[in-house]
Amino acid sequence: MAMSGGGGEDDEVLSEMNVTPLVDVMLVLLVMFIVTASAVTTSVHVNLPKTDAVAPPDTKEPLVIAVDKSGQYFLDDKAMDLDTLKQKLAAAHQQNPKVAAQLQADEGVPYGKVGKVMAALQANGIQKIAVLSSPQ
Known about the structure:
Elements: H1 20-39, E1 50-51, E2 63-67, E3 73-75, E4 78-80, H2 82-95, E5 100-105, H3 111-123, E6 128-131, E7 134-135
Parallel strand pairs: 1-7, 2-5, 5-6
Antiparallel strand pairs: 2-3, 3-4
Helix pairs in contact: 2-3
Subunit structure: The accessory proteins ExbB and ExbD seem to form a complex with TonB.
Protein name: Biopolymer transporter ExbD
Function: Involved in the TonB-dependent energy-dependent transport of various receptor-bound substrates.
């Protein structure tokens, strides 16, 4: 009589699924989503000034006003002059009196341009204003 060397059947089928590759793929996808989502904020390129704290308002859809290096005004990525911007701000406040605004101004823009935008926001009753900057 010959001795059996294994103690079990060799024909056993492994019925467990290896989930390690699935978890690896999901983590890679999650990291890529986080990296790309934080990079997509607006299509108008401005160099934001550096500050210690950045706190945008807690609203669902704030108005995004940008002033680029050349002093051109943008409202939600659409270029316009100051008078048109004032009209759009008045219309936005009329639709939603609690509307908030985020102001993105290039660090090379003269303060007067930014001051005109802030005065237009205040004149139209928009009180929640966040001036965006980059962390140091």
